[in-house]
Write a structure and sequence with these properties.
The protein is an all-alpha fold. It contains three helices and no strands. Helix 2 packs across helix 3.
């Protein structure tokens, strides 16, 4: 029993010593953390700025805002796919109906090719040999007549520019002198330009 007591006392002493060591170690670690805490806050702040966490949070908020609309759009797409599948079925039915009509269409094309097309070709030949040469001659005459007409149009444009300058000068005179003088100058200018 005495040994047992000594053993219990030794274990108790070792446990108390270990508890003391653990408390000391914990206190030392807490002091180290308290000393490093401002540095850690600075590093966390720098890391947050480097990683641009605020911008990522904004992106996450935008995703949170957009997600319901995206889900609704996906549901709408699923509905549309069902409608497209129905339409494809209807198109398949229409295609089979068209397949049954193809022989009659081919017969009609053959009739057009053998009956109507020769008439169209002969009429086209008549246009090419009879009508088109007259149109080409008329076009050649127009090409000869157009340059003198354009020269006259250019001349009229130059004269109208001069008339507008004189009218503007007359307007300034009219403000200073009188409206009657303006009409008089414009009329005489127009008469002289028209007679040239």
């Amino acid at each position: 029993m005495a040994r047992m007591r000594m053993l219990i006392q030794a274990v108790l002493a070792a446990s108390i010593f270990y508890l003391g060591y653990t408390i000391y170690s914990f206190t030392s670690t807490v002091n180290t953390v308290v000393d490093k805490y401002p540095e850690m806050l600075t590093e966390i702040s720098n890391t947050a700025q480097t990683l641009k966490i605020d911008q990522w949070l904004e992106v996450a908020d935008k995703f949170a805002t957009i997600t319901p609309d995206a889900v609704k759009t996906a549901q709408d797409i699923n509905k549309t796919i069902g409608e497209v599948n129905t339409t494809v079925g209807e198109v398949n039915k229409t295609a089979s109906a068209i397949n049954t009509n193809i022989p009659s269409v081919l017969a009609e094309v053959k009739a057009i090719r053998t009956q109507a097309l020769p008439d169209v070709l002969s009429e086209s030949k008549a246009i090419r040999t009879q009508t088109l040469p007259g149109v080409l001659r008329e076009s050649a005459l127009l090409r000869q007549d157009v340059p003198p007409m354009l020269a006259k149009v250019d001349e009229l444009m130059d004269k109208s520019e001069e008339l507008s300058k004189q009218a503007a000068q007359g307007a300034v005179k009219g403000v200073i002198l009188s409206p009657i003088d303006l009409l008089k100058d414009a009329g005489s200018g127009l008469k002289s330009k028209v007679s040239q």
